[in-house]
Q: What sequence folds into this?
């Protein structure tokens, strides 16, 4: 620490040591126990938990969920401290459109829906919709309301921004001959028509250039979006994905961008609800070592790290809700012959830090908001965990997000894991200090979470290429579910894949249920 | 030594010198009022001090160039810090303000008075005397013109008084440093002088970096009446001022009450609710840390328990211990029936452990002029409040800003309470310090204001006048307004727009 003051904290989470046992190909011990279960769900991220939810809702409760970490949630995990609970990564969901019945049902279960309006559209609880002031941006020494600083903007830059917004609205209103939206959430619903799908072959940077949408502010604004949702630069992002970020959140060409729902612990609120539903069937610190499809069954060998013993679980069906890079190491057919799409699945590493502060830092201009963005910073700024609770004074927790957008994610990942806690703290302080002089004096704790594979990158050509299309196909009785299969790490995608995989198994088991997918 | 450079130096020091004078005059007018007197006396003191400086210059014999540089540094630091020093002096010891003001003006004037004679002497062997006097004085007066235009048109509007004075100090120190090169042949040890200059610059740069905090304290200079008490708490700045027999309380610069007419406000806030529910026993006060609403509540013998939730422990402690406040709230804060909870009211309403129901609630927050106050006027807040009231007979009385000056804000609060399930009757009272003031009486169930209320002895209200509070004239009548929610905070916008129009 530059000031020499003592700040507590450490690098937390990320069961790298346990996980790296897979990579290091340690010899697999003989199983100490054997179990049989109709369904095994591998991975308790949103995809796996959503599969469990779908089974539960269909009245089928004979499943088990295996999770490597010591808690459920994947990148929607949260933590807690004396001041406030806080997210460790994913921290909001946009208000879903009426067709997203499963997400609305889930939000109803967590009490985020208080009723229905005359048109029977859900009414969301006031304390779950993001409280004003929602966002602010630090620009040339001052905070401004909103995400885009307009102070001193050149006329042509302002015009380019106007054209950009108009183009996104236009895309939001486009539908194909069958009535499917060009850009929809989950992306399975989007039109595959060439007119739009071919945008995937361009980078977002190239598309903006082609459309004459240039200027420093626009570039920054658009890249803030891709860094925020995908952990990528404009050059690394498919134009289809870049447009999707804006167009899919507008219900029509005329509507306002969807409101946002959030909780102090971010999407951790949804995780704890789903995890509670799974109850003791969720087993944490369970490292899946091997998955081998056999005749009519799937053998799952896993390490029960709590007891230090190896377990062989024989399941009739498996939902593999692991990220691809892990699935490739545990599925024996894939170990023998890696499928082509693996190479194309690239991950963005992220560093997320939770900063516990004894008081609010001072700053010039617009007051502290939920989302606080620094123009021109490599980070995405910070989100205030106490904001939604209405706590406006005293101690607080800032969740600081830094996507590592290097062209070579592997090197970035190695560098990230090699960087010590003191260096992270110094970098965070360095970044925030220009907006908050004297921040160090308020810092009590900095906890750092290193996400080696935080999200799949929607690089040009990936979303509508053959590799991704192939990758969702089941492998015998192993069904896949993960945002990797969409190429975009969004809550809606994870839930959609979890439900799809669960429903495929329910159908195979001839269960009667009402599908969530339409 | 090149003479054009010297004339630029003269221009700069003349500009700085006049700005310090203007800063002192403006600041004295802000703080003490009566700008004619303040400007006249400041200018008089300043010019005469310059005369003293000129006279004293005759006693300086050797090392004129070094002295000149050091005088620049001294003017830089003293002049540069004059505005923050004066504001701080006013905040800390208002009685001594005049002494500090004129002392500073005399010191700065004396130092500035030394400058021109020394410059003339430095150049007397280089430039012919008649040209020297002509040019130096011409640039001196030109600098005065610069200052008199820059000060009102650019400096004060862009930077404010504190930053203006510190910035000019920095320029002055810069002139001093630059003079160590300009007069290099005449200087003995420029290294030492430059070190002194660096120290002066560092002091001023630090002051500039902290000028925000200084400015905040400086805002205190804007109270109309003498300040008798100030305290910065974790949450707000509490200031009390006094005029004659009365005193006023300000939170963050906003008037909360004047002891002259606060009874009109607090009687109107409290007694209409009691007129509807004369048997109320359990009472909740949200805000109202001054204890004045509590004073009115405790006049009712039916009251057995009062819970007051106020954010700031310093405020409630002050209301209990400060002699002026204690007298005014009749010792309400020490009443055994009263329990104080220091917590944000929204957070408190969400606490699961506080479950008991109240008969009456009085909501007495500062006006919604920022988001963290605005949240205390949202439908979410009122929904939580309604659930803490007796479902059959519960009532809440809410201060809801001026129905005349902020009419849409007033009706927005009304409408927001309705959206949260309250049956609302708006009413108003005249409080001269504030103007026409508004309240909203909300019932958990439908209710009627009583025809013949039984009231304790009050100064502003009896039966007929209390009934009359519920009559609003056409210029205060309903306006369409959105419901104020946590996720839109429309009220903060309404309120800002409406008050800006009146100010």
A:
């Amino acid at each position: 620490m530059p000031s020499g003051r003592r700040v507590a904290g450490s690098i937390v989470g990320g069961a790298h040591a346990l996980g790296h046992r897979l990579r290091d190909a340690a010899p697999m011990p003989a199983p100490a126990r054997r179990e049989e279960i109709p369904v095994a769900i591998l991975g308790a991220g949103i995809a796996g938990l959503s599969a469990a939810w779908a089974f539960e809702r269909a009245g089928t409760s004979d499943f088990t969920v295996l999770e490597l970490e010591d808690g459920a949630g994947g990148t929607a995990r949260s933590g807690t401290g004396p001041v406030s609970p806080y997210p460790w990564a994913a921290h909001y969901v946009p208000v879903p459109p009426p067709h997203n019945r499963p997400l609305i049902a889930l939000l109803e279960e967590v009490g985020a829906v208080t009723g229905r309006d005359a048109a029977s559209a859900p009414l969301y609880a006031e304390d779950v919709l993001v409280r004003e002031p929602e966002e602010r941006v630090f620009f040339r020494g001052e905070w401004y309301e909103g995400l885009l600083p307009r102070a001193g903007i050149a006329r042509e830059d302002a015009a380019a921004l106007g054209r950009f917004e108009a183009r996104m609205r236009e895309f939001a209103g486009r539908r194909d001959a069958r009535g499917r939206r060009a850009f929809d959430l989950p992306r399975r619903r989007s039109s595959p028509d060439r007119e739009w799908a071919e945008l995937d072959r361009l980078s977002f940077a190239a598309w903006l250039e082609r459309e004459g949408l240039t200027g420093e502010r626009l570039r920054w604004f658009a890249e803030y979006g891709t860094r925020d949702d995908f952990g990528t630069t404009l050059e690394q992002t498919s134009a289809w994905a870049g447009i999707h970020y804006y167009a899919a959140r507008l219900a029509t060409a005329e509507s306002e961008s969807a409101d946002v729902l959030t909780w102090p612990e971010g999407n951790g609120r949804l995780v704890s609800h789903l995890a509670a539903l799974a109850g003791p069937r969720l087993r944490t610190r369970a490292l899946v070592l091997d998955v081998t499809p056999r005749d009519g069954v799937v053998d799952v060998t896993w390490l029960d790290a709590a007891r230090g013993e190896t377990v062989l679980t024989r399941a009739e069906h498996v939902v593999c809700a692991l990220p691809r890079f892990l699935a490739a190491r545990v599925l024996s057919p894939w170990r023998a012959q890696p499928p082509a799409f693996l190479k194309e699945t690239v991950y963005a590493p992220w560093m997320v830090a939770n900063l516990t502060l004894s008081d609010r830092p001072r700053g010039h201009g617009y007051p502290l908001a939920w989302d606080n963005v620094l123009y021109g910073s490599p980070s995405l700024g910070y989100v205030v965990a106490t904001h939604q609770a209405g706590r406006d004074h005293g101690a607080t927790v800032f969740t600081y997000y830094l996507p590592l957008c290097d062209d070579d994610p592997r090197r970035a990942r190695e560098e990230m894991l090699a960087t010590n806690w003191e260096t992270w703290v110094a970098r965070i302080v360095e970044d925030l200090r220009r907006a908050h002089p004297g921040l160090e004096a308020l810092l009590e704790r900095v906890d750092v979470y290193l996400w080696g594979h935080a999200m799949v990158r929607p690089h040009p050509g990936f979303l509508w290429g053959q590799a991704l299309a192939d990758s969702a196909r089941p492998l015998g009785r192993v069904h896949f579910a993960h945002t990797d299969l969409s190429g975009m790490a969004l809550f809606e995608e994870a839930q959609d894949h979890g439900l799809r995989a669960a429903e495929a198994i329910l159908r195979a088991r001839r269960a009667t249920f009402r599908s969530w997918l339409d | 030594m090149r003479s054009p450079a010297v004339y630029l130096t003269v221009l700069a020091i003349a500009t700085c010198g006049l700005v310090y004078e203007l800063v002192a005059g403006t600041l004295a007018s802000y703080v003490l009022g009566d700008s004619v007197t303040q400007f006249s006396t400041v200018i008089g003191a300043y010019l005469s001090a310059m005369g003293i400086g000129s006279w004293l210059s005759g006693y300086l014999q050797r090392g004129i160039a070094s002295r000149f540089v050091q005088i620049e540094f001294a003017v830089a630091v003293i002049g540069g810090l004059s505005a923050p020093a004066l504001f701080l002096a006013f905040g800390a010891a208002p009685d001594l303000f005049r002494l500090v003001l004129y002392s500073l003006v005399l010191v700065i004037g004396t130092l500035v008075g030394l400058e021109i004679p020394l410059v003339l002497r430095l150049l007397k062997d280089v430039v012919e005397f008649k040209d020297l006097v002509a040019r130096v004085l011409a640039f001196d007066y030109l600098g005065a013109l610069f200052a008199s235009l820059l000060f009102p048109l650019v400096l004060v509007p862009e930077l404010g008084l504190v930053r203006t004075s510190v910035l000019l100090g920095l320029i002055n120190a810069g002139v001093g440093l630059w003079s160590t090169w300009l007069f290099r042949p005449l200087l003995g040890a420029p290294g030492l002088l430059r070190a002194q200059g660096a120290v002066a610059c560092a002091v001023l740069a630090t002051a500039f970096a902290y000028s925000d905090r200084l400015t905040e304290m400086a805002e205190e200079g804007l109270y109309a009446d003498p300040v008798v008490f100030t305290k910065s708490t974790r949450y707000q700045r509490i200031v009390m001022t006094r005029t004659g027999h009365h005193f006023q309380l300000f939170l963050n610069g906003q008037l909360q009450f004047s002891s002259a007419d606060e009874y009109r406000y607090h009687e109107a806030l409290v007694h209409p609710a009691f007129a509807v529910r004369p048997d109320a026993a359990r009472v909740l006060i949200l805000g109202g840390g001054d204890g004045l609403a509590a004073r009115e509540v405790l006049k009712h013998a039916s009251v057995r328990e009062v819970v007051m939730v106020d954010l700031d422990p310093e405020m409630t402690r002050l209301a209990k211990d400060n002699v002026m406040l204690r007298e005014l709230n009749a010792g309400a804060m020490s009443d055994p029936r009263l329990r104080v909870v220091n917590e944000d009211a929204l957070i408190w309403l969400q606490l699961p452990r506080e479950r008991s129901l109240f008969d009456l609630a009085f909501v007495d927050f500062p006006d919604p002029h920022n988001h963290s106050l605005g949240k205390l006027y949202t439908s979410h807040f009122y929904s939580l409040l309604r659930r803490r009231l007796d479902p059959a007979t519960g009532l809440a009385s809410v201060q809801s800003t001026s129905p005349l000056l902020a009419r849409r804000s007033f009706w927005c609060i009304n409408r927001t309470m309705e959206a949260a399930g309250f049956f609302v009757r708006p009413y108003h009272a005249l409080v001269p310090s504030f103007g026409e003031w508004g309240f909203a009486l909300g019932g958990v169930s439908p209710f009627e204001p009583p025809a013949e209320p039984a009231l304790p002895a009050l100064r502003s209200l009896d039966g007929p006048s209390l009934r009359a509070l519920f009559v609003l004239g056409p210029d205060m009548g309903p306006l369409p307004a959105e419901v104020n929610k946590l996720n839109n905070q429309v009220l903060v916008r309404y309120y800002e727009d409406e008050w800006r129009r009146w100010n």
